[in-house]
Amino acid sequence: MKFFQYILPLFFLISCGDSKPSASKTQDLDSLLVIYPDSVPLLIKRGTKMFKYSKFEQAMADGAKAFRLDSTNIDARMLYADVLNNRPGRSVADVAHAQDLYKVIVKKQPKNTKALVGLATTYSQQSDFDKSFQYINVALKIDPKYRDGYVLKGTNYLFLNKMDLAKSSYETAVQQDPKFFEAYLMLGSIYQSEKNEICLQYYTTAKELKPKNLEVLYALAYANQIFNKVEEAKTIYREMLQQDSTYSQAYFQLGYIKQWLEPAKDDAVKESHIDSAIYFYSGAVDLSPKYSEAWHNLGVCYLNRGEKSKATESLRRALKYNPEFALSKELLKSIK
Fold this sequence. Notes:
Blueprint: H1 23-35, H2 40-52, H3 56-69, H4 74-86, H5 92-108, H6 113-125, H7 129-142, H8 147-159, H9 163-176, H10 181-193, H11 199-209, H12 214-226, H13 230-243, H14 248-261, H15 267-287, H16 292-304, H17 308-321, H18 326-335
């Protein structure tokens, strides 16, 4: 599991207590906008709420309309720039447009730290890290406690493969905002990639902040697993499945633990472990039929039980979904 999977949009790293906006408040805004469809303040308010909860399509519609209605409104310009700069699938043109929007804001409001870091982000996405650091440093000189400045510094250092500086920047970010969930997750991922067990502390803190977040539960469980804390890992995987019984990776890892990590004192225990592994791997492929790794391990389990026909079928399934799966190719060849 690579830490880069946790890199969120470079600028506006969103950290909130809820996973979705309040339905009643959103409905109130919707109702008001039916009556006042060209209200710039209402469009900005709803667009900002949608952006905060990563509802980028809705945020874009409101931000673009608010900016079109009043291009002199700084908040409308900021919202439009933020959405352009952070939405999934953003284009080179989107980033360049956002850059121009931020430049206008910075020109009018030289001490606007949010706009300065937004502008810095556009340069990061253009791989102009010198320019990005320049604007970050301006923002941090204005406000030395501005969390997002340190977040972007950390992200820049990650891309530059300067891990010690990246860790230092994220540590400073959580000093400014001790409840910044994403930074703990990122720090855990970095330390895990370095095979440093301290990652468990960061994942645990992230779990305390968001105890039902499946991403951090999986990260913590997997980290426990690779550091040989098998019982802790099993407990968390089961906790995940209680929350979401369709999480196929939790089934896979429980199968992997039964197959490879739990000691077997005798043949009866070993056979019991293989039966359990088959159960969990079968659960994984039932939920994710193209899960080639689960099909492969299922084939290994069947082969250990001497069931060559089932092993062959499972390995063929693994190769169907991943034709370059070398381990399955070799094992299937050996069976033949």
